[in-house]
Amino acid sequence: MKFLKVICLLILGFSASSAVAQSAYSCQRIKGHDHSEARSARLSDHYIALTQEYDVHFYNLAIDLERTSTYISGDVQIHVEVTSAEMDTFLFELWDDFVIDEILLNGVTPMPFTRIESAVIVPYDALAGDNFYLQVSYEGLPPTGGGPLGGGGMTNDESPSWGNQVTWSLSEPFAAYEWFPCKQLLTDKIDSVYINVTTSAENMAGSNGLLTAVVDLPGDKKRYEWKTYYPIAYYLISVAVAEYVDYSIYANPVGAAEPVLIQNFIYNNPLTLPYFEDDINETVDFLEHYSEIYGLYPFANEKYGHCMAPLGGGMEHQTMTTQGFFERTLTAHELGHQWFGDNVTCASWSDIWLNEGFASYSEELMLAEFYPGDESSLMLDRHNNIKEEPGGSVWVEDSLNVDRIFDGRLTYNKGAAIVHTLRFLINDDEVFFDVLQTYQTQFKDSTATASDFKQVAEEVSGLDLTAFFNEWYYGEGYPTYSIEYVQVDGELILVLDQTTSMPGVTPFFTNDLAIRVQKPGGGFEIVRLTGIDSEHTIHVFTISGVATSLTIDPANWIINNNGSIDENPNLAELSEEKSALTIYPNPANSILTVENDQNSSTYQLIDAQGKTVQIGVVGLGVNSIDVSGLPAGNYFIRMNGNQSTFTKL
């Protein structure tokens, strides 16, 4: 999900190719107002609790709206089921300045109501399982910003590039109540929504789901009737009204019963569509690719599409993104949200990473598939932006602070970067994408927390990701790595030291680390450091050839700074110390014997690529370790701070 979007490139003459270098990292989400702490100021805990006594099943919005003003009038039905044992008060939210003409129970009975700021309170007695609806007739002007509660749920503006005037909604995270009566709770997705927009005949109105009818009305008016039957979060309901033309194309993702409509409402300007047509057409390729790696486009029975509006980016309204312009990383980001944010929505704004981190990483995945090489520079740019400041967690502690929720450095860039790190830790792309697909399937049409995602990732990958989340998601900062090394015959001895930018929060990072070992003539070998359990660790590898130099994290999997990389002949002494670990026979066929001078010790068997292949515990004295299941090759055993190499026959 998102609020506005990430790229500050809304100018005529902007070329799509230039955006790869810019990308989402370079600019903050553009906001017309600040909702910081707005929710706590708007509703007390008591009032929030009242909204949790019922579930919303259906909204029927029938509104009048023009492209020249944000003035709105209409009737909205809120269909609910009571979930508490009993209820005596129904509460919803609506902007204070709207005039409520009447509230009808089930469309018939007028109901009394009181208003306390944005809270609308209707006395009504009901029991668990009761179903009813309130029809709210209202009109007025939404906020325009500057007040203590902000503004911007509905905006009117003219495109500086194309001259078209547009009225559009943008509700994320707390602004839906600024244009229609609603309940704003992430975990209460609405089962289905009808959106009927009446406007002047020269306009078109875009929204969620399928356009089921365009009805001619008296007074040179038209009514655009949209219906969506997929569960939807309150902030993803949208409208946009302007003089548009409909440019529709189709995608054919694997697994779809029929082609998926991509319906684009583009400014009715003779230059706009020709300018963006090639960029819009790429949406087909992106949707088909994401359907392969994430699972079938989740709203394939309805559509995907875009409504243009003069934003500095885009907002991932379900099935029809509102977008200011078309550029490949922006389009890919908003499309990625249809899986991460729309199909599965974060259950708390503190876990916005589940929306924005994965949508941002979708940009890299798109570039890797269609513009190979560009994804590397994008990730490098993200890392550089992250390291402009030492701290900050991806997890959002203050979930009422909009600026922090949508912080470009932490939520977007570090959010994407740690998804990349997770992919490295899993170390198997088939498993990594299986994690993402399983998450999509398990939480389809629902909400999830970071803990939910962690559980899925652990179950699918078989890894314990507690350290990853504690250090990279809840923790702060990044490491600086330094290396000393020496080669003794075919053994590379490497000492890794790390310092961190926020040692008081995250003293060290335990993630694996890749090292490129350069050899004469341009050859190289990648070794993987595992078992990093302190600021200072020793690693031993069996390599072929001569190591001429080392490179830390050559593929940029980890947010880090490089310190010094020095060859140190004195480390040869470590090789002698390590050989003091008594093991035999060497080579070994099925049983490796190890002598232990402690009551109980944990050992690791590590292959030549640095991957831990076996962990166990041995007691005092002579112990037998079964290595019969290991492939033939060179290994080393680590125990009690000592390491020795052995060969498995």
- What number of structural domains do the residues give? 4
How many whole angstroms does the radius of gyration measure?
Answer: 29 Å
Overall strand count = 34
The CATH architecture of the largest domain comes to Sandwich
The level-1 CATH class of the largest domain = Mainly Beta
* Tally of DSSP helical segments: 13
Low-confidence stretches: 1-41, 146-150
CATH superfamily of the largest domain: tricorn interacting facor f3 domain
Q: Work out the strand percent.
A: 35-45%
Structural class: alpha+beta
Tell me what the structure shows.
The protein is α+β, with helices and mostly antiparallel strands. The chain has four domains: 16-357, Immunoglobulin-like (Sandwich); 358-473, Orthogonal Bundle (Neutral Protease, domain 2); 479-575, Immunoglobulin-like, CATH 2.60.40; 579-648, Immunoglobulin-like, CATH 2.60.40.3080. Helix content is 22%, strand content 37%. It is built from 13 helices and 34 strands. Strands 5-4-8-2-1-11-14-13 form an eight-stranded mixed sheet, with no helix packed on it. A five-stranded mixed sheet has the order 16-17-18-20-19, with helices on one face. A hairpin with a 5-residue loop joins strand 25 (513-518) and strand 26. Helix 6 (353-370) crosses helix 9 (408-426). The two termini are 54 Å apart.
